[in-house]
Specification:
single chain; about 120 residues; mainly beta; 3-stranded antiparallel beta sheet; 11 strands; about 0% helix; extended
Length: about 120
């Protein structure tokens, strides 16, 4: 019989950022997506918050308080959205060069899974 190990929860990739739907204050019919940190189990003790590596969905601080990121749910299609940030370079008619950081939004590749599972038994 193979030896087995129990895992309370599996880990998720660090770039996985959950967006939780919730009502808007004063407007229960309007749903907004809010970014929340995912709690990753840790062998050292308390869970660790996974905050991701995104600059677009980065955590923002204002006056020592965390600013909540929330946007209308219709902004994110069911297939997801992919936002690319790229440097743009252009030359104007007078010969001057202009450089800026631009963003483009494209449709996602469909629904994906983080791989998060609870109460798993795996071979050692």
């Amino acid at each position: 019989m193979p030896s087995l190990s129990y895992a309370f929860a599996t880990t998720v990739p660090e770039n996985w950022v959950p967006l939780i739907p919730g009502p808007t204050d004063g407007r229960p019919d309007v749903v907004r997506l809010r970014r929340v940190p995912l709690q990753q189990p840790s062998r050292e003790g308390p869970p660790v918050a996974v905050t991701g590596h995104s600059r677009l969905l980065d955590w923002r601080w204002r006056d020592d308080n965390l600013v909540e990121l929330a946007f209308p749910e219709e902004e994110v299609p069911r297939a997801g959205a992919r936002v690319l940030r790229r440097w743009q370079l252009a030359r104007w008619t007078d010969g001057s060069v202009h450089l800026w950081l631009g963003s483009t939004r494209r449709a996602g590749t469909g629904e994906l899974s983080s791989g998060l599972r609870y109460d798993t038994v795996q071979p050692r």
